[in-house]
Amino acid sequence: MRWLKDMDDKAFEGLARVYTGTWARRHERELRAACEAARAALAQTPPDRADEPLDAVLSLVESMCNSEQDFCTQFFFLDIDVKGESGEAEGGERGEARRAGAETRRFMCELFPALEAELVALVAHRGADRCVADRLAALPDAVKQAAKKPKCGLLSFLQELEELSGACERIFVSSGRRADLDRWYVSLASAMLQAVQHAEHPRTPRAVLHMENYHRLHAVLSALRVPALEALRRECRARYSDALRAYVTQYFGRPLEKLTQFFEGVAEAVAQGVREDEVCYRAAFSKHELRRVLAMYPAHEVRKSLHRLYRTVEKHLSEEGGLLQVVWRAMQEEFIAQHVALQARIAACYPAAGLALPLTTQHILDAFSDIAREH
């Protein structure tokens, strides 16, 4: 081989290419198999022993690289510069050493073209596994920290999930690690779902805490567009809707309470067999009594109560949650539903009596819009 290197540089380079090409494929298969085995081991290894699979791969890489470097240096005479021996080298021994080092690096790059990519992916995988474990362990602390704030707002781990998922997608987008990514996402999202469920705050209503955080978690999972998260997305959406409904029911209540109670009595009478158009002949449900109850709710008083309600909602909800107008619209829909039901009962039980609720549906829509703009 020394003679070939001295006499026929083209033939020498051709033989070197055959060698590096053949062995590069073999090393790539061996390295990929080792990395796959390490990733599989990482998924089942306890956190305190998670470095062992990575160490095994690094030991294998070190052995492979050292063996190839020693063999190639000796077989291909990489430490000998033919031109340098002829007296044409520049820089003496230092220049010869640089050329030998460059030649060795070239051989190693050709023999292990996928080495860097495989190791980066494996180390990133190990880092992501550790990061996920750390995030899971930190969930209780995030809930405790939120309890110290004036309002709960969004729990900090939701933004961390958003940032972590973005980083993971960039790192692993072309690494074939989709199954690992999905496993991490499901693990984190499931734990966060339970953390929100059990979180409490001394000043924020539980329904608001749930509503804001389930809403944001649903948005983060939806942005990922990962099929494995579909069930968790649906669960987040359902819990958010339940929390919104619970909050509206609890804090909106029945703004026309006495009027609602009046018609509950009317409904009981009808259920007992009294015809709707004859209910008004009973003293407790007479037209006079209905007029008296309706007079308790002049339009300006209803508007005042809505203003107070808006301030309460504004006090409960956080700015970062971004749900104030969503909640206000839900309360508007609830008021209109109650209004329509009461108006229908008046029309059925007191026809042609000229009685009506103090606000029309349009008045209610205008009142809710005006209050939202004023604040």
UniProtKB/TrEMBL annotation:
Q: Recorded GO terms, molecular function?
A: phosphatidylinositol-4,5-bisphosphate binding
Can you supply a Gene Ontology BP term from the record?
Answer: Golgi to plasma membrane transport
- Top-level lineage group: Eukaryota
Cellular compartments per GO CC: exocyst; plasma membrane
Signal peptide from the UniProt entry: none
- InterPro entries associated with the record: Sec3_C
Q: Which residues form the Exocyst complex component Sec3 C-terminal domain?
A: 147-351
The name of this protein is: Exocyst complex component Sec3 C-terminal domain-containing protein
Species name for this entry? Heliothis virescens
